[in-house]
Amino acid sequence: xxxxxxxxxxxxxxxxxxxxxxxxxxxxxxxxxxxxxxxxxxxxxxxxxxxxxxxxxxxxxxxxxxxxxxxxxxxxxxxxxxxxxxxxxxxxxxxxxxxxxxxxxxxxxxxxxxxxxxxxxxxxxxxxxxxxxxxxxxxxxxxxxxxxxxxxxxxxxxxxxxxxxxxxxxxxxxxxxxxxxxxxxxxxxxxxxxxxxxxxxxxxxxxxxxxxxxxx
Amino acid sequence: xxxxxxxxxxxxxxxxxxxxxxxxxxxxxxxxxxxxxxxxxxxxxxxxxxxxxxxxxxxxxxxxxxxxxxxxxxxxxxxxxxxxxxxxxxxxxxxxxxxxxxxxxxxxxxxxxxxxxxxxxxxxxxxxxxxxxxxxxxxxxxxxxxxxxxxxxxxxxxxxxxxxxxxxxxxxxxxxxxxxxxxxxxxxxxxxxxxxxxxxxxxxxxxxxxxxxxxxxxxxxxxxxxxxxxxxxxxxxxxxxxxxxxxxxxxxxx
Lengths: 216, 254
What we know:
The structure holds 2 protein chains of 2 kinds. Chain A is α+β, with helices and mostly antiparallel strands. Chain A is globular. Helices cover 55% and strands 18% of the residues of chain A. In chain A, helix 2 (43-59) runs antiparallel to helix 3 (65-79). A 5-stranded antiparallel beta sheet of chain A has the order 1-2-3-4-5. Chain B has one domain (9-253). Chain B is built from 11 helices and 2 strands; from the N terminus they run ααααααββααααα. In chain B, helix 2 crosses helix 8 and helix 3 packs across helix 8 (179-196).
């Protein structure tokens, strides 16, 4: 046993932990998205509005968490394009779904995302959001780059929002935390469940998770 | 824990896998590349058990008895000690400016930041860097190879396992300290990190429908992003294409 071994062991663990942190951000960060999409707002303005509205709710510590949770959900529902998000996550499997299955999937997936970020609402510790830049992407999409500035010596978290224009409004279709995309992550999970156990099993798993939301 | 000879064997195995993976067709960025999934899932289950029953509880005890400032100071101290590895890899990636900045970070944080316990440099515009030898291999164009879950240490791949050897060489502390000194310090470091990320780890467990795939996807994406230094790059796969557009040109699939 050498000291280099122990140091590299902890290196490997740290890099795994960072990957986990990045993944976890996917959920936490959903709580920083949402707000009424005014026409003519630029993508950066949308993210700015969403962030400030959500942060305002999170700061009201005297308000009961269930009420704050509902408020945050309302903001997010206005600014996230859940239909596009669902279709991107399902990718090629989307077409295999019946219309009933499609709407069930959208409903349950939205609920699942709400539950998981909702549990993080009380973890808010005076983080601030800084919008850094905007970048044009393929398909007319725009990525807005931002950082979440954490107080108390914590590292900043890089968050990219991808927006797509629909009905004249920019809405969020993906959130990328420290390089980890929500769409890509859920796509791999759902792809694996569908290819090994089928679509019915995926829908059953989602329903089961939603009936028994984890307590924070 | 892993001894020296078994570590060498691990590295040999990794090199072999790396060479094999080089001959395979280039995988889509979204492709799982997980031929050892059966074994990996078993190792993952072991790691989860260890985390739930040993590391997690110990870390929560640590979190209970330490103030947040102590935990972040330990993180800063550890990041500062990594400076030689970061500078070495900056140079291997021909990023001389970043190498210079890291030297400046080390100098500032070791002195004004009191032995590295405080990250003063970041307030002066010298950003924290995340570099390791596995990333350097990625910058050189070496593919990661198949996903591998290591017992105790978690997600990895042949490229990153070989990278561990590089990190060992670039880390110079073994000259100064006996292994047991390093070992006790590293133990604190691992527990401290686990405590810092406790909430996030718990919420990934709640959020995932297949937590194994969640971690695998996050690990691959995070490593790719680090290799690009988080810079903008349009993904080459079909991540943001809607199904309708996909089928326009691959209707005959299946």
